[in-house]
Write a structure and sequence with these properties.
Two copies of one chain form a homodimer.
Chain A (H helix, E strand, L loop, with lengths): L5 E5 L4 E7 L5 E5 L6 H10 L3 E6 L11 H8 L2 E5 L9 E3 L4 E4 L3 E7 L8 E5 L2 E5 L17 H11 L8 E4 L9 E2 H7 L8 H9 L9 H8 L9
The complex binds fe (ii) ion (2 copies).
Pfam families (chains A, B): Lactamase_B
Protein name (chains A, B): MBL fold metallo-hydrolase
Keywords (chains A, B): Metal-binding
């Protein structure tokens, strides 16, 4: 049965953080927590009586710093990250096809969806796809840094994400318009960047975006590759 | 089994809107939709393939205008509102103990929880309590207008809401600190206004808040009593 995650939002970077928990156990997983919200996120776990067992990252973010290291330290959870993102201190280096198990039979499937960054992963749980910045609601992540590739993103979305069951709920890594959730089927039919578009057309569109360099990138990427902990700590 | 709702947020008034849907049917219910988000909310229903059958209001709001009338008009859903709020054009005037049925056996129980306003209702669905402005996360709604009463709010919370199963997830009508959800048990033990406080102490505290009059109240309350539709429409 589809279970919705708990969705939390960071207004500064428009980043979503997700808490996943299933019936029959108080174990929980958090995806993409944000540095200055570590107390808020711990309070949610406490209020709901949840025990954090894994902190997952979809990729090494360029626009905000993770609280993965801090949450790991304070809860005893393990950090689980894409193997291709250079996040060395994490316990679990995830590869395509891996399954993360928690709670009473809950399973998260790991899907390698490169393009926004070379290492980016999506996570599939109970009819939900957590797509990080690979696929956004009516959009997608940029592909012009961190070994990003429009070609790779096109393949990840058209061959992998759009092949999921069409009713799969799609929970993005960011949203800038107050949206919360979509479905794979809707994005396949309507996503302004990716629906019914040829590879050439998509790559041309992405190459012409001319986006400014993210303000935090030079600080955030190395910080996130250390789970948000001070280097040398 | 506890199913989380889909939670949407209005940054202007810090209001939460909720979409509820269960397995085996595409019928859905929306609680407390906000006027200028009607398109966003319809897009969520469309993306998830949902058919709106009821628009619920927890009370006649003083700080924002509902889109209930608009959504009703555009979807054919029925408006269901607390009988004591003077919202005349709604199809269903709800009373304490009523049950709203939708989808494949989904049931929403109606609990009269006066105090923030005389008519305020809470809605209970699958281990979730939607408490409107009666009970907020680590707080509660004000009681100084719309026949509000600190005495009544104290009774609603201590006798009714705090008697629900302690693990019930509590989804408030507003939050001003980026929080999403709590539990009845946590609020009973820790809510700064209501946990372990005598009636006298609570009423004194509420009488000393000296809050400014809500900017929108003279417009919003009459508008909401007409489901957000222009009068005479
Ligand atoms: Fe990113
Ligand atoms: Fe209110």
């Amino acid at each position: 049965m589809n279970l919705n995650p708990i969705q939390l939002f960071d207004t500064e970077s428009s980043t979503f953080t997700y808490i996943l928990t299933g019936p029959g156990s108080n174990q929980a997983v958090i995806i993409d927590p944000v540095d200055h919200h570590w107390e808020r996120d711990l309070r949610h776990l406490e209020r709901l009586g949840l025990q954090l067992v894994y902190v997952l990252e979809t990729h090494a973010h360029a626009d905000h710093v993770t609280s993965a290291g801090k949450l790991r330290e304070l809860t005893g959870a393990q950090a689980a990250v894409p193997s291709g993102c250079g996040i060395a201190p994490a316990e679990l280096q995830l590869n395509d096809g891996d399954v993360i198990r928690f709670g009473d039979g809950e399973e998260i499937k790991v899907l390698h969806t490169p393009g926004h960054t070379a290492g980016s992963m999506s996570y599939i749980w109970r009819g939900n796809a957590f797509t990080g910045d690979t696929l956004l609601i009516d959009g997608c992540g940029r592909t012009d840094f961190q070994s990003g590739s429009s070609d790779a993103l096109y393949d990840s979305v058209s061959a992998k994400l759009f092949s999921l069951p069409q009713e799969t709920r799609m929970w993005p890594g960011h949203d800038y318009k107050g949206q919360a959730v979509s479905t794979i089927g809707w994005e396949k039919r309507h996503n302004v960047r990716l629906a019914n578009r040829s590879r050439e057309d998509f790559c041309k569109l992405m190459s012409e975006l001319n986006l400014p360099k993210p303000k935090l990138i030079d600080v955030a990427v190395p910080a996130n590759q250390n789970l948000g902990l001070p280097h040398g700590a």
